[in-house]
């Protein structure tokens, strides 16, 4: 019994819902009463922005302007209204504006028929206006060029090298450069590029919402043949007598030259300006200008080279040298007044500090000399690189006697 009662009540509820829904459909479609409805987030477009540039003003970019509309009309229309069915504008040619925030009335230029917009004359939006400025900005190149072997890219040339950036001062003042980026690969001839420009700040971050004029630049990258040649250092003058110049070495010892093939093809080496040896007093590194051919340039852009000069100091030293007697006839005996002589030598430290047996010899030749006392100058020979400053004594007293045979 309770179960039948529950089922009966459920059927009654369903019939009531169907009846109510049918009444609502009748009223909505047949009676269609007038209703009010608030439509939010309707976008507002700013028009005729160029008219205020003559007053050195402009609209700040990226303003999201919207209004809320109070719609009135048939329920079937107002409840189905969408924001894109409306066109709402702010016309800057109609109002006087100033830098900063400006509360400006809007105009509704397009909306659905059968719908009224209540209090539309009071609709306003805040429009931010900034100072309009222009400034000249240098072009910054980021052009990556790779070439074939033995070819080299010269300095890039951009035209124009400055462009005009204009717009809201807030944005234009942050522009440091306009960037032109591009690339070329496997080049063996001049490269010409037309590159678009992008405004960037000091951190190389793009600054949008500014105008750039012109919007592109032409970039020329000359590409020339290169050749590696040795560097030679000619000398002039006499070096100081107290030193010996051991090495003269340019660093680097060779250089890459670039130019037209016919201009560099026969170049085997280039010279520096002459190194004046009279100015060298010790180990030193000097900078000398390269004598570059007229139609060739160094790849590294430098027209000078460092030259390292190493020297060794010349000193004096006295050495005691034993005297060797030669040429004594048979049956004779020779007795020198001294078995050693003192030889004053001049040479580099490395030679004088490393004298070995045989590097210096002193001999006295007694060929064809008979008995008696003789004064003879010894003959002294020294190792290459040494010079004899003096010999003491200059002559040695030699006593020659017959060899006495023992009595039988």
TrEMBL record:
Do the record's keywords include rRNA-binding? no
One Pfam family assigned to this protein is YbbR
**Does the UniProt entry include the keyword Membrane?**
yes
UniProt superkingdom: Bacteria
Listed A to Z, the keywords are: Membrane, Transmembrane, Transmembrane helix
Tell me which InterPro entries the record gives. Answer: c-di-AMP_regulator, YbbR
Q: So where does this one cross the membrane? A: 10-28
Query: Under which name does UniProt file this protein?
Result: YbbR domain-containing protein
* Species of origin: Clostridium algidicarnis DSM 15099
């Amino acid at each position: 019994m309770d179960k039948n009662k529950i089922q009966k009540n459920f059927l009654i509820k369903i019939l009531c819902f169907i009846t109510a829904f049918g009444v609502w459909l009748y009223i909505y479609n047949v009676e269609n009463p007038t209703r009010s409805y608030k439509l939010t987030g309707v976008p507002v477009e700013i028009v005729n922005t160029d008219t205020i540039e003559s007053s050195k003003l402009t609209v700040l970019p990226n303003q999201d302007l919207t209004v809320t509309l109070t719609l009135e009309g048939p329920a079937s229309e107002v409840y189905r209204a969408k924001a894109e069915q409306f066109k709402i504008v702010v016309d800057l040619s109609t109002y006087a504006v100033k830098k900063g925030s400006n509360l400006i009335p809007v105009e509704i230029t397009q909306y659905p028929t059968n719908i009224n917009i209540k209090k539309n004359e009071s609709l306003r939006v805040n429009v931010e206006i900034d100072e309009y400025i222009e400034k000249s900005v240098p072009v910054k190149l980021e052009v990556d060029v790779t070439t074939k072997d033995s070819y080299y890219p010269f300095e890039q040339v951009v035209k124009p090298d400055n462009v005009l950036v204009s717009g809201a001062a807030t944005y234009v003042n942050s522009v440091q450069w306009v960037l032109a980026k591009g690339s070329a690969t496997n080049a063996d001839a001049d490269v010409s590029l037309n590159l678009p420009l992008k405004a960037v700040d000091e951190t190389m971050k793009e600054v949008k919402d500014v105008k750039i004029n012109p919007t592109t630049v032409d970039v020329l990258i000359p590409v020339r043949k290169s050749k590696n040649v040795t560097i030679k250092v000619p000398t002039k003058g006499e070096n100081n007598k107290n030193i010996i110049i051991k090495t003269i070495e340019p660093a680097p010892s060779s250089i890459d030259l670039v130019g037209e093939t016919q201009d560099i093809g026969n170049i085997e080496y280039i010279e520096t300006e002459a190194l004046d040896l009279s100015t060298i007093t010790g180990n030193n590194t000097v900078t000398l200008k390269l004598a570059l051919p007229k139609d060739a340039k160094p790849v590294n852009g430098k027209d000078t080279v460092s030259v390292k000069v190493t020297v060794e100091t010349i000193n004096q030293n006295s050495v005691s040298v034993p005297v060797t007697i030669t040429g004594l006839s048979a049956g004779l005996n020779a007795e020198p007044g001294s078995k050693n002589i003192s030889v004053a030598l001049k040479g580099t430290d490395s030679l004088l500090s490393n004298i070995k047996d045989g590097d210096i010899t002193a001999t006295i030749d007694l060929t064809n000399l008979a008995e008696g006392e003789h004064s003879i100058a010894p003959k002294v020979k020294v190792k290459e690189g040494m010079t004899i400053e003096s010999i003491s004594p200059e002559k040695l007293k030699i006593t020659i006697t017959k060899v006495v045979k023992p009595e039988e």
